[in-house]
Specification:
globular; disordered N terminus; alpha+beta; about 650 residues; four-stranded antiparallel beta sheet
Length: about 650
């Protein structure tokens, strides 16, 4: 009898095992992530620095000048009988004054030019202007210099009234982009190996082998269960008539994957991004890779707010209790943000004299607080009882929440009025420029217009960011905070647009096609608004795309990208299940821990170490990729241990 019972149990476990095997496919694939990621780290550390030697092997001889990254040597040879003043301006600098580079004396005799060496920037194309000592313009030469290259600019007389200026390459530049190519190949190989491994694990033959291996262990477990302690009671058949416990709500992996993509890129650019200009924030108008990720993080936070509040309301939580949680979490985010952007607290007590108040987590806190409170006012716990045959049902995800939409539109009107109508002392009303040498130097102390003025008046100059990105090209002197007060209004708009994506998911949760089509419509609408506001240009629009200002066009442009990216990730991860979301899924599940950790431990090994050549893109890229990969590995290990830090 015992043998027959055991056999029956084994047969039952076989059926259950098949079901469990299908459920654990994701877990089996996840076990391969750690060794693959570890291999990628080893290869990155060993191979990427090698590219520095490859790229440096063709380096030109340096003319008694130690060059840094993104620099080249320019030798100006003057054959004129008058001295020459050399000035320059970056092509990325809109309506900027020329900056003096240096002087070159007159030629000593015909055929014997005088010369002078200068260091020039190689990040962007620059325009050189040569003037005579009596401020007469001789010529202008646009040119994009290459890193560590040697160049000569010859200034000659063609005749009595015409001056010829030409640039000759004496020694070619190094290819500073080889490390990026190598890193791309390494991580692409890692992704390919992971995909091949997942495909192999999905084959029926491999599944059968794995099942037979696990079947032996399952049989042993069943034997131990059946021969359990003598006091063990056998469950009655009546126990099986009880309904199964309710299964937890399905969590969309695409949302955590989207959040992880934003977070991983954010960590990489915060660590330095290999010191490449396109992994740094744009100096003023325009976009780089670094300008994309923070708004995406705010966007997906809004999406999560919609899903979280709906789930808690359905579970029976009261709006008052949820409001208390929102207030407490916002306060925690704000306090943590103040600590991590003022790192000197490790060396002693914080001082109010130069304490910076705005920051990334502080802006997240305000956006989270505003959008969560709005959603608590209008959210509906049970969406199943809503009418679906009314004429307005196709717009349920908007019309049901019209008070929140009205509030956000009024808030945006406040931003427009303050930005374009607030009088700013000694500055033109509605000014959106960087100040400094921009706008031909007419408004040197007007950086950010109303946004900068409000921060300086409300918070004080010593409590905002002292080194804005506008100093790189526009040589601004005023402090300016890209996470300031006025820009927080538009970050609320960004989070609210993410909240709208969450409403779409809630109302059409069983219709993936409707979710994707509606998100794409929103992306198209926001893209059209951006095109109108910017006139499809960087600097000539009504409201240019500007991360420092968090301008309206910046929000609509990045929200357009966010909707499209969300559709792509949702389709591949949750609809077709072609991709598990790894490795971005893991940091997305522990976003606060990863963000705070990468800020706090930025200067500690293995996230940073003393480099042999601090002026090498390859070594910086290696260090930043290793640091970012370490946080991905940490988040993966925490995920395996089911450790998640939530506030």
């Amino acid at each position: 009898m015992a043998k027959r019972k055991l056999k029956k149990s084994k047969d039952t476990s076989s059926v259950a095992g098949v079901k469990q095997a299908s459920k654990k496919d994701m877990t089996q694939r996840e076990k391969y992530m750690f060794p693959l990621a570890a291999c990628a780290l080893v290869v990155a550390v060993c191979v990427v620095p090698l590219t520095a030697e490859i790229s440096a092997s063709g380096s030109p001889p340096v003319k008694h000048i130690d060059l840094k990254m993104d620099e080249a040597i320019l030798t100006v040879n003057n054959e004129l009988d008058t001295g020459v003043v050399v000035s320059w301006v970056s092509q990325r600098c809109h309506q900027c004054l020329y900056q003096r580079l240096g002087d070159v004396p007159a030629g000593s005799s015909p055929g014997q030019p005088s010369s002078a060496n200068f260091v020039v920037s190689t990040q962007h194309e620059i325009t050189l202007q040569l003037n005579s000592t009596d401020i007469l313009e001789l010529c202008t030469v646009p040119f994009h210099f290459g890193e560590h290259g040697n160049y000569s600019l010859w200034v000659k007389n063609l005749n009595s009234s015409v001056v010829n200026c030409s640039i000759v390459t004496d020694a070619g530049p190094v290819n500073s982009y080889i490390p990026i190519l190598v890193a791309f190949l390494i991580f692409s190989g890692m992704a390919l190996a992971s995909a091949i491994g997942a495909t192999i694990l999905g084959l029926d033959v491999v599944k059968g082998i794995l099942f037979r291996i696990s079947g032996t262990m399952e049989t042993e477990r069943l034997i131990n269960t059946e021969l359990g302690s003598p006091g063990r009671t056998v469950s009655l058949a009546a126990d099986n008539i009880l309904p199964p416990p309710p299964s937890p709500s399905k969590r969309l992996r695409s949302l955590d994957t989207f959040r992880g993509i934003s977070l991983v890129i954010m960590v990489f650019v915060n660590y330095g991004g290999g010191r490449y200009w396109f992994f740094r924030h744009e100096s003023w108008n325009g976009l780089t890779v670094a300008d994309l990720v923070f708004p995406w993080f705010v966007f997906i936070m809004g999406t999560s707010i919609a899903l979280s509040i709906n789930s808690l309301l359905r579970a029976g939580s009261t709006r008052r209790s949820l409001l208390r949680k929102v207030l407490w979490r916002s306060l925690q985010l704000f306090i943590i943000g103040v600590f991590i952007i003022n790192p000197n607290y490790c060396q002693g007590p914080l001082t109010w004299d130069n304490l910076r108040i705005p920051g990334v987590l502080q802006r997240l806190a305000w956006s989270y607080l505003a959008v969560s409170c709005l959603d608590l006012l209008v959210a509906r716990g049970n969406l199943d009882i809503l009418p679906t045959d009314a004429w307005w049902s196709p717009c349920l995800d908007i019309l049901l929440y019209w008070p929140a939409w009205l509030f956000v539109l009024l808030l945006e009107l406040v931003w427009l009025c303050l930005t374009f109508l607030l009088p700013v002392p000694d500055c033109p009303t509605g000014y959106l420029g960087p100040g400094g040498i921009g706008d031909f130097g007419l408004y040197a102390n007007c950086t950010g217009g109303a946004a900068g003025y409000i921060d300086r008046w409300l918070l004080g100059e010593s409590h905002i960011y002292q080194n804005p990105s506008s100093r790189v090209i526009y040589a601004t002197r005023m402090p300016y905070d890209p996470e300031g007060v006025l820009g927080s209004i538009n970050s609320i708009l960004m989070a609210f647009l993410g909240l709208q994506a969450g409403k779409i998911i809630l109302h059409y949760r069983d219709l993936p096609t409707s979710i994707m089509s509606r998100c794409l419509i929103w992306g198209l609408l926001l893209g059209v608004i951006s095109a109108v506001l910017t006139k499809c240009s960087t600097d000539q629009g009504f409201i240019p795309v500007n991360k420092n200002l968090w301008s309206l066009s910046y929000v609509t442009t990045l929200a357009c990208f966010a909707y499209v990216l969300l559709v792509l990730v949702y389709y591949t991860v949750d609809v077709k299940k072609w991709w598990s979301g790894a490795p971005f899924y893991y940091p997305g599940m522990n976003s606060i821990l990863v963000y705070v950790g990468h800020e706090v431990f930025e200067n500690y090994f293995p996230f940073r170490w003393r480099m042999a050549n601090s002026q090498s893109h390859a070594e910086h890229l290696t260090q930043n990729l290793v640091a970012t990969s370490c946080w991905v590995l940490i988040s993966y290990l925490l995920y395996r241990k089911k450790i998640f830090w939530k506030i």
